[in-house]
Specification:
single chain; about 450 residues; alpha/beta; 4-stranded mixed sheet; 18 helices; globular; disordered N terminus
Length: about 450
């Protein structure tokens, strides 16, 4: 993969972290000067937190804080520490991506606590630079999905504050109008698209350049994550005994079919930003199907207010409607100056008490198996599948090849005219590179 492509991959992952950074409030500039007083002039204990976006003044009234800041406040009060926000902005780091900056800061012990994307979690975990969080009291309450996605070499190296799920947002009224049931399998999905197109809906699926990869994930890993041999199959991929391209081929062939039949507009999708391009037609009732993340159903700036009945379902797979879940997570530097206090802070921030506050504030799926929050009616089909333990991971720190960013880029190549075989060769090259690194 070219240097340019690597940078694009990191930028994609940075977008994922920004997405799950919990609607953080921005102070519109750099850190509050009060927060930069040299530590030798302070008596208080501090924990330095590095994240992708500006934070509000940590000394502001708690009521003004975003969901994550409420959990930070709980940690500060319980431990008697002050969380010092250090943030990434493109202005400060110019050409360096968020992931590149995170790798450098963790390797040089510049902070204590980090919000990391999956590829950074995987790389830093493999280097032994992240603290094992499996001993935290709150870790006992985590869903198995969290452990799987954030475990590297047997160590739980990151814990998120929410589970970000992707699904298909469908106009139920249009499905009813044409006598269609909501699709479960790839074949049923294609039949729905055929009926819509024959009835004058020229492009049934509204797509953008970011999220078509979810179709590939759902079909590639439905059996892997929902069968009986998950760990064995991942081990075979990591050793080279199995090939990622063999898993990915059916999903890419499906996407090629969508392109060939005109069910998606590949040319438009290749240059379209998420929601901005396909959103207006979906909201106007012209496009029956779009794809988005869980939170888009909760906000009126996306799909939280429609004039028709909307449901959010999983992507089609051999095992039915399949949610796709990528991960970011809070991680502590293994050699950080304030690692013990940082770990204690994480323990409080991801405790059931804190996650209840967090989840109720943002109406998201909690990483704790003990925390349940009512979701809007449109999200219940997706939520029910996840609560049943049915899902695939779009990112997994235990896999030797980073999934989310790489797959997105290879889908982009398909949209640009690359063949399925060429896309599979790209997966093979990534796997061979990972195997080569493992042998060194």
């Amino acid at each position: 993969m070219s240097k340019r492509a690597v940078k694009r991959k990191s930028w994609i992952s940075a977008g994922l972290a920004a997405l799950t950074v919990l609607f953080l409030a921005s102070c519109g500039g750099h850190e509050d000067p009060k927060n930069l007083i040299p530590q030798d002039k302070r008596e208080e204990r501090v924990v330095n937190l590095f994240s992708p976006m500006e934070k509000i003044d940590p000394d502001a009234e708690n009521v003004a804080r975003a969901a994550s800041d409420l959990t930070v406040a709980m940690a500060e009060e319980a431990l008697g520490v002050t969380m010092v926000y250090r943030t990434y902005t493109a202005e400060d780091y110019q050409d360096k991506t968020y992931d590149e900056v995170c790798l450098d800061r963790v390797r040089n012990n510049m902070d204590d606590l980090y919000l990391l994307n999956p590829d950074a979690v995987m790389a830093l975990g493999a280097e032994g630079r992240l603290m094992d969080l499996s001993g935290l009291d709150s870790a006992k309450n985590l869903r198995e999905i969290i452990r799987v996605a954030n475990t590297v070499d047997g160590k739980l190296v990151a814990i998120p504050q929410e589970v970000v799920a992707y699904g298909l947002f469908v106009n139920v009224d249009l499905f009813r109008q044409y006598g269609l049931t909501l699709p479960e399998t790839p074949e049923e999905f294609l039949e729905c698209c055929r009926v819509f197109q024959e009835n004058g809906i020229e492009t049934p699926v509204g797509a953008n350049r970011w999220w078509l990869e979810n179709f590939a994930f759902a079909q590639a890993y439905a059996d892997l994550y929902n069968g009986e041999n998950t760990q064995a199959e991942i081990a075979a991929l990591n050793s080279g005994e199995a090939r990622y391209s063999d898993y990915m081929r059916p999903g890419f062939e499906f996407l090629q079919t969508l392109i060939d039949r005109g069910y998606i507009d590949a040319e438009k999708a290749a240059v379209s930003e998420a929601i901005e391009a396909e959103g207006p037609d979906f909201l106007a009732g012209k496009t029956p199907i779009v794809m988005a993340y869980w939170g888009a159903a909760n906000t009126e700036t996306a799909y939280g207010k429609t004039d028709f009945e909307m449901q959010v379902i999983g992507f089609p797979s051999s095992r039915g409607q399949m949610p796709v879940i990528p991960m970011t997570g809070l991680a502590v530097g293994a050699d950080a100056e304030h690692r013990e206090d940082a770990a204690k802070a994480v323990d409080i921030m991801v405790s059931d008490e804190a996650l209840q506050v967090y989840s109720e504030t943002n109406r998201v799926i909690s990483p704790s198996k003990n925390v349940k929050v009512d979701c809007v009616p449109a999200l219940r089909p997706l939520n029910d599948r996840i609560e049943e333990g049915v899902y695939v991971l779009g990112s997994n720190a235990g896999m030797s090849v980073e999934q989310w960013g790489n797959t997105c880029l290879i889908v982009r190549e398909l949209l640009g005219g690359a063949t399925v075989d060429e896309c599979m060769a790209a997966f093979d090259a990534l796997q061979d590179e990972a195997l080569s690194r493992a042998e060194q």
